[in-house]
Structure formats: structure tokens, C-alpha cells
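User: These chains co-purify. Model them together.
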Amino acid sequence: DSGVTQTPKHLITATGQRVTLRCSPRSGDLSVYWYQQSLDQGLQFLIQYYNGEERAKGNILERFSAQQFPDLHSELNLSSLELGDSALYFCASTLGGSTDTQYFGPGTRLTVL
Amino acid sequence: GENVEQHPSTLSVQEGDSAVIKCTYSDSASNYFPWYKQELGKRPQLIIDIRSNVGEKKDQRIAVTLNKTAKHFSLHITETQPEDSAVYFCAASRKAAGNKLTFGGGTRVLVKP
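Assistant: Joint model of the two components:
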């Protein structure tokens, strides 16, 4: 157990819908990263937050957004869902600053029908 | 941006033999290189990592080597066991880019008893 938690474990929804994925980092970690893992694209970085502020952005679609709250949990919002958004979504956390080791949560499996 | 290539994509070895996975990266400023093991449907788990100021690191049956000049790093697993069967991912990051991880495409390792 990495200490990073994610909910829900599974999510099944329809095209056009909106979902919210939640991540709680390890105790004391300030930085949260979101990654998408699909069969054809592998593991791809989406976005990073550090202590409530966006720090880095990767290949994140405009339909996707995220935020980190004062208690340091983070939410990834996916809207206007398409079939191709079906994937495993992982968050990872790290203390931040010069600390680089990332610990992954169990992931949320999103299925868009 | 950073690009990480990983080879081979699949690797089948006999129990007790060694397995070697190789990765190359493109950004000479990358300074952190972790390796993750992922079992089907589960989170990537950090198994070993190396920083750019070190050429080699070993942890029991697992070792990683880094050649900064050639921009490649390798994972070596000795005395393989059936429980080593999984998908292994290499990654690279640098602090200036927020330590986001750029992953290789993964290597599916099968250890035959």
C-alpha cells in the first residue's frame, strides 16, 4: 500500500457525461500528479499540482480539468466523455520541492460506453 | 519535450535466468530515472531508481545502470522467479519540469517455471 488513495475504483458512464475522480496523497505530500494509462497510449502525464497550485501540464485535453484543495486532495474532472477516454487514471504523490520519488495510487478504471 | 524509448516490448525468460530491459531518453537535462513494476490492473510500484550523479545501483536481485553520455539506462533482474512476471516501465524526469515522469512504452516480462 503506497498510502495514496483514489476513489472510485471503477466508473462506468456514457458518452457525453461528466465524472470526477478523487485522489488523496500520502500524509505530508504536497504534490499530486495525474496520469492516464490507455492500451494504445501507455502511461501519460496529464497535470501536476503543488500545494494547491498548478505546476505542470502535459497532454491534458481541454475537456479535462483538475484542482487541488486546501486539504491537499485533488480531483480530476472529465467532461463530454468520449469512448477514447476509457482508461486507467492514476494519481501519484510526492513531498515536492527537490523530492522526486512518486508513489502511485490504485487507480480509477473509467469505462465510457 | 522528453521522449523515452524502451526495449524489448516483450521478454520471455526461463526461471533462474537474467532479464535485461533497456531505455533511452532524449533530454540531457533529465536527472531522475525510476523503474516501475505493474501487475495487471494494479498500480505501478517503484522497484528501483537512480539519479544522474550515480552510475549504478543495486537492490538484491535488481540493478540499474545509467550511462549519461549515451543517454541510456538499463534494468537487470538476476535469478528471475515466476513472481517477477509483470510489465516493467522505465521513466525519466527532471526537477525543472516539475519532476513529471515521462514513461517508456513498457516491457512485458514472462518468467517460465
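DSSP finds no helices and eleven strands in chain B.
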